[in-house]
## 1
Amino acid sequence: MSTAEISKKNVFVAGGTGFMGRRMIEELLRRGHRVRALVRPGSEKKVPAGCEAATGDALSADSMAPMAAHADVFVQLVGTAHPNPAKGEQFRSVDFVAGCAGADAAVRAGVKQFVYVSVAHPAPIMKSYVAVRAAVEEHIRKSGLHATILRPWYVLGPGRRWPLLIKPLYALMSLIPTTRESAQRLGLVTNEQMNAALVQAVEQPANGIRILNVPDIRKAKL
């Protein structure tokens, strides 16, 4: 589909200054969409040129709902940077609260489409992170929103390429019947693939709840 054929959207983004958010916003603007991004006070210049910055609290539905008014799509990308097993309390106080607040804000603002970046599960590690993201998914389901939930495991990008060292292990696991499904579900995705999947989620509305697992994210193209 060419950019001329795309229905232009009003998009509200929470978490638009991170490495995934900035790239997604740039692509959405290039394709003619209008984007407003939630930022902390003083961070207005961190959003890409052409994006409207709105200062507010990513942990408060009351703060975000007025800003999301008139949006067609709410994209929730807020989360703890560089998650690891030692950050369980941050997952509960930031990721869970922000995810639920985003869904609640979308409902209050009358936004019909919600896009949420969750995490692949089940998984043998990062159990507190997985539990929090799964709890947000359940909150989204109960909200009644039409939502696309993306479930990457690890997104490769600048400063995030060490997992390439274990890529041969993934290849081996994919050949073994008992580990093949886990290797696919917990596989690596590139920043380019993730960006394409996010943009497609914005441009192609979900009907109910749509789940994009790692194999689906890898297939996304712009």
## 2
Amino acid sequence: MNLTDQQRKELEGFARRGEPVYMRRKVLLLLNLGQGQPVTQVAKVLHVSRQTVYSWQKRFLEHGLAGLRVRAGRGRKPKAQVAQIERYVRQSPRQFGVPRTRWTLQTLAQVVPSLKGFSPFGVQKALARAGYRYKRGQPSLHSPDPEYEVKKGLWTKP
């Protein structure tokens, strides 16, 4: 594979940055091909098939670095539906027959249809993908004493 000086500089710059990691692997593969390494050897070192090497090379030559990115729609489709999660999370659990004032990961897994069968950690990951962060409530100390704030200041750190 013959690389122009501009292509080589672009690949070397990206190899130093290396984000995302899967792109760095493809860039290093192309740099090795550009140095005259045989396809079979490059494929063996990076644990990919020769066909994969040819595929990545073709995509780079046709589309540049953008051709090496993972295309949208690839991979396993998520079971959890973001719109459904939002509909449930933004309402009180009591509206769905749960006698609580706040959602827990377990109750979300029981009530939200697309989260049925999820573990608590799976629900937390689905919430994160939907843009929500699960955070437990923290207990707060409150006193009816009118001088409470003054007294509290004596034993709390500034």
## 3
Amino acid sequence: MKTVGYVLRMKGYDIHSIEPEASMYDAIEKMADKGVGALLVIDSGEFVGIITERDYARKVILRGRSSKETAVREIMTTNVLYVSPNYSIEECMELMTVKHIRHLPVMSSNKLVGVISQGDLVKAIISDQKSVIKRLENYILENAKLT
């Protein structure tokens, strides 16, 4: 069973973050530049929350707020669920499905070490399935030669 640690080794340990005093405009601009749907909010080196495109759509746009005048701290999620590198992919998928979230920060020894998304988990599952299929094909071919 593959783990979050495996997923991070595949995708990398990059952490895209923003400060809580930054504007939502800056946050959305950074998400677009990095090609991500969420930023971790870091204040003086401490992980304090997460901000997502969904937060922006629901808490800024739909409420008629200004992107340039709304600070990240005003709409970020502060009670953030996180996992450790030893969580299984299946545990994370279940947690994300039940809690309706798309991103999970990864903590190890109270230190932020990465973030995973549903897309990262799906890629890992597909990669694992391709590997299983390839092994089964090789097994079938080898056994067909023996008969």
## 4
Amino acid sequence: MRSMVEGAGRRDGGAYMSAVVEFPAKPEARDYLACFARDTAEPGWLAARRQQSMTRFAELGFPSRRSENWRYLDLQPLQQKPLLPARSAARSDDAALRERASESAVAGVAARLVLVDGRFAPALSDIPALSGVWFGSMAQAMRERGELAQAAVEDAAGEAAHPFAALNTAFFSDGYVLDIAAGVRLDRPIEILHLGSGASEASFHTRSLISLGDGALATLVETYAGQGRYWRNDVVAVRLGAGAELSRAALIEEAAEAVHLGQLDVALAAKSCFDGFALLLGGRRARHEASVRIAGDAARCRLDGAYLVAGSDEANIVTFVDHQKPGGETRELIKGVVADRGHGAFQGKITVREQAQKTDARQTSRNLMLGRRAIIDTKPELEIYADDVKCAHGATVGELDETSLFYLRSRGIPDDEARRILIEGFLREAVEEVEDPAVRDYLLRRLAARLARLEA
């Protein structure tokens, strides 16, 4: 198929250069092809990568339920009614955004960066100078720290097989970069807030990079929220040097009609440690995907998560940990609660390669179904090629314990409150794995607020 790609205007109001490309394109990719064109202000390396990625997305199209990695998420509505990338920042209600940003504030953070509709919002952000730290928007990094921006784009893992990572590369306009020098240890969290203004129906493609030098330490908390109908397609690359430690918590609390697709790509050097946590509380369809490569000896990884799904919403947590070196350790705890006609799913795979002897990996999925129409799918997997390892996995799906409910009712606690107490206690186990007290308290507050709405 030969396709002419025309552009009406650049993201900042300038001009695009039209491009001619020849490749077989899936029908669902045509609308995205039609709004893709080269931005003449961008460097040549980025233009080339965008073109390659657009070509790849056109070849792959949208994944279907026949694909094992996507079998538990229905993307047909998004495919049938596309949400195309916003060409420029839409007018929004600043007062409403300030109120939402205030709601999502984490106490005592070292710095805060806010993105509205996928673009940096300096008026809502607070980024003081931090010794040994470069922290700013991806758009700023492309102007001032080209090597970091290039690393975020060219080091994208899995793009050949992941259509939405390819689409992200083709269309991302902003995101953030956090680069911490070797030996720098931050004692307060960094906060990133992604807001959808509701000013227009569109897709927001953000590309970010977190890079920690040898022995560095940091804590991040990211919140995704908004209003209206939109599609957030977020890609974050994490690169940890030898002995570096990063804790990252993500709260997905998107609008009722929103689609959230988040991809986290982590590479660990020797003796580094990554603690990742995801709490999925909102969005019509939400998918959190984390891929971790144990690329150095004795590196440690913790991937925990929880989801609470109601109505007819869908939530997926997908993890893949690849142990490539010896002495690595992985711990995973995923907890899910589904009510009404909701659908929750966990797919987790741990691969231990032949050379990754002395690996210690454990994976646990525990779930509660609240109602006969609720659906939960859980699929933990181990793929082991080494012979000197300790690996285990398990999964459970059940209902609220009637004995515990009876006990609470017998103490005079109303039925709705008793249910809420048990559900919160069930999910709280995963949230309490977050070490930073300010981040943990913030997540527990948002969980309590969501439970209050569920039982109302």
